[in-house]
Amino acid sequence: MVGYFDKWESIAKAVGGTDENGDESSSSDKSREAIEVLLGKDFIKEAVRYYVSGGAGSELLRGVLWQLHPYSVMEECYRASSSCGRLSSYKVGSRVSYSR
């Protein structure tokens, strides 16, 4: 199959699902990391911003983020709390760059 599914090899390498010998493995953590790769970190971080703003559907979104618990959510929460001081001043769509 050519197309979208040819990306799975690179995703597997990115999340540690393939070793240097080509042997494959999987786990719940690696699967969640793969979902984060598919959705994109920017999408996940924007979802955190939306949740914090309390928009419609934010409780469902909180549940989805809890199921995935991607690392980028922790990064975004840390950025929000350290750059704004108070989450109440945190705005949807705010853009602050930071390095890991």
SSE layout and pairing:
Layout: H1 8-14, H2 28-39, H3 41-53, H4 58-68, H5 71-84
Overall description:
The protein has 100 residues and is mostly helical. The chain has a domain at 27-85. Helix content is 57%, strand content 0%. It is built from five helices and no strands. It has helices at 8-14, 28-39, 41-53, 58-68, 71-84. Helix 3 packs across helix 4 (58-68). The longest helix has 14 residues, at 71-84. The model is unreliable at 92-100 (pLDDT under 50).
Question: Concise description?
Answer:
By secondary structure, this protein is mostly helical.
Can you write the helix and strand succession as a string? HHHHH
Q: Kindly provide the radius of gyration, computed on alpha-carbon positions and rounded to a whole number of angstroms.
A: 16 Å
Unreliable runs: 92-100
Terminal Cα span: 36 Å
Structural class: mainly alpha
User: How would you state the average pLDDT, rounded?
Assistant: 79
Helicity range: 55-70%
Approximately how much beta-strand content do the residues carry? under 5%
Number of strands: 0
Sheet of most strands: none
Overall body shape: elongated
The number of helices is 5
